[in-house]
Structure formats: structure tokens, C-alpha cells
Design a protein that fits this description.
Helix content is about 35%, strand content about 30%. With about 80 residues, it is α+β, with helices and mostly antiparallel strands. The protein has one domain (about 5-75): 2-Layer Sandwich (Alpha-Beta Plaits), CATH 3.30.70. Strands 2-3-1-4 form a four-stranded antiparallel sheet, covered by helices on one side. The chain is globular.
Length: about 80
């Protein structure tokens, strides 16, 4: 089965340290294939197992809030 792609907006991020933390912690989540956070466009790109999509969104959101920031799923236009 083809992996799902999740794109999330990073809200309030301003330093590379937070981006590194999100990538490092995100790689440890079950079902995450790849995770890449980009401070320039303030997006987090995640590929994951489709069955775990919602769980991963919730875990990433919780993880980001614990370090003092917020995220939301990116609206595709």
C-alpha cells in the first residue's frame, strides 16, 4: 500500500533547534516513514502508513505543543 503524505503548518516556530527536535522525535513514532520539517516554508512533511494517519497527526500535534508551539494540518488549495 502506498504511504500517505501529511503536510502540517508550523505555527510559532523560530529556531532550528525546534525543527530538529520535531524531526528526531517524529522518526520514533510508529508508522512514520519519513518526516521533514522546513523552517523556511514553515511546513512539516510526513509520509506514513495510511492506517495510522490520524494517530500520527494527533501524536505530532501533542509533541509540538509540549515544546511550546502549535501545528495544524495544511489546507490544500
Amino acid at each position: 500500500m502506498k504511504p500517505d503524505e501529511i503536510v502540517m503548518d508550523m505555527l510559532g516556530f523560530g529556531c532550528a533547534s525546534c525543527v530538529y527536535t520535531i524531526e528526531k522525535m517524529g522518526r520514533k513514532l510508529a508508522g512514520v516513514k519519513t518526516i521533514r520539517a522546513n523552517l523556511g516554508d514553515r511546513l512539516i512533511h510526513i509520509t506514513c502508513e495510511p492506517a495510522l494517519r490520524q494517530q500520527i497527526i494527533e501524536q505530532i500535534t501533542d509533541m509540538v505543543r509540549r515544546i511550546g508551539h502549535d501545528v495544524r494540518e495544511h489546507a490544500v488549495t
